[in-house]
Amino acid sequence: MRFSQSFIPTVREVPADATIASHILMIRAALIRQLVAGVYSYLPMGYKSLRKVEQIVREEMDKAGGIELHMPVLVPVDLFRKTNRVEAFGNILFKFKDQHNAELSLGPTHEEIITSLVADHINSYKQLPINLYQIQTKFRDEERPKSGVLRTREFVMKDAYSFHTSLEDLDKTYQKMYQAYHRIFKRCGVPVVAVEAESGPIGGSASHEFMVLTDIGEDQVVSCDHCDYAANVERATRKVADGTAGRLESEVVLKEVHTPHKSTIEDVSEFLKCKPPQVIKTLVYRTSDEQVVVALVRGDHEVNEAKLRRMGGVSSLELADDGTITKLTGAAVGFAGPIGIKPDKMFIDFDVPAITDGVTGANKTDHHFVGVVPGRDFTIEPEMLGDIRNVVEGDPCPHCGAKLKFQRAIEVGHVFKLGTKYSSALHAQYLDAGGKNQDMIMGCYGIGVNRILAAAIETHHDENGIIWPISIAPYQVTVIGLGRTPEDEVSKTAERLAAELESAGIDVLFDDRDQRPGVKFKDADLLGVPIRVTVGQKTLAEGKVELKLRRDGEMQLIDVDGAVETIKTLVGKLMAELE
Ligand code: ATP
Ligand code: MG
Predict the structure, then answer these.
(1) Which atom of ligand 1 is nearest to the CA of 209?
(2) Strand 477-481's sheet: what is its strand order?
(3) pTM of the model
(4) Which end of the chain is more exposed for a tag (fewer CB within 10 A), N or C?
């Protein structure tokens, strides 16, 4: 491709909201342009890379037994009603009416569509297992689209769905997908770690996220210093001491104190001159079946709602409204505490009973209790105790007890054992060998194609621009001619070399622009093409051209005769490093 005939509008300036490397460089190197918030055009350089990522994903999915199909973007909302997902999606679902007043949405994910398709056409155990996938644009009306293409409202996802007759069979495909994902990210040159993620109905290690560790990531990965335990913070657990229970006796005296307008943990601890770990944070939740659930954690800890849901055996729960709180406590919001209230259920984090001289809301507006002793001043039954908080740095690893540490990360992929949630709701059943109807057991596997691009740039760049892994670089080689006129020997040699490389099957960007060498070199660095070949008068006089690797700046002179072979070998070597 000739630079002068392509569409590569590189720029120096970027919008103020571009603060992370991948966002800045994708704009500067002319990969993307924003249309409206969270919606991007892919310019030729960006689109070429995107297609290469897609192709790697496709090849590895095919190798792992996936079968590609393509489902519609327009999805009737009723299909999501059947699985109660309209509410679960909330505002992210793009919904509208067609001219016949039917409610449609733009598909945010395709479990329901594939399941109803399979339900219509597969009915015997003999047709299972099957693993179907597509590479398609998804739509999610994200509340805060940000970080360039890392979180957008329109993005390309590879989504695969597998159907099985047993959990053991699902395990096999899950393992295959897990391995395929590792190969995909390796081939794209993106370093990932697989971590345990929120797992839903099947429990256990039924879900893994593939994470790229980087400070700009939105996710938090918790990992152990000592063993290989790693989990998303939403999922991470900790080792807890056995037999944690509240004290029944203590010298400390329970006392009600006046705390006017002090309703937050910070305000209360400052006012009462105590530390947040001494405060018993009391949160009131409501479940979908109208139960009132109270959760107690230490003042410096955060309740983990997924853990709370699991402990309470409920599928959905949210923070209670002011009315519910006031009805429970008889006080304004901000003064709830465990002493004397009667919720439907109370759950207490393992660390709460260890508090010896606690502070908590007095269930009376503008009042708190001090000298609180858990177990003495409010009852703690063993079944109320559990791990209901997010882990924090330094907590003991659940496997080996060593210290847990935190790192930020970008989620680029997610594999998930779904069980029968969708098949039972949408009647995807098969006849087993005994002629009995059974719900199919499902798995699903997603990859964010655009996020891979951004994550690759986050992990491969320097102050001058992108340093593409060669497998997903828009061009593998850029040829720069430093001739004075388009007709001189130098320009002709550069042109011939570019053409021959292209014929040899290499992706070449030939910088034929009438520009100063400095401008061409700067753009080559910005665009991040892995191999740069420069044809200049001085070296050409000695029968040589210059070869430079973007990643380490290493330069060498190679013979112009046989240059195509030399470069082809180098491309092969760089590609092989990513296999
Ligand atoms: P997140 O927690 O980041 O919102 P998610 O867990 O909702 O993502 P999944 O439903 O698991 O995402 O989707 C599969 C993959 O699609 C994710 O691993 C991610 O790589 C990609 N993805 C999800 N949402 C977006 C988005 N808004 N923009 C770009 N890629 C996305
Ligand atoms: Mg996910």
Answers:
(1) 18
(2) 508-511, 477-481, 531-535, 544-549, 555-559
(3) 0.92
(4) C
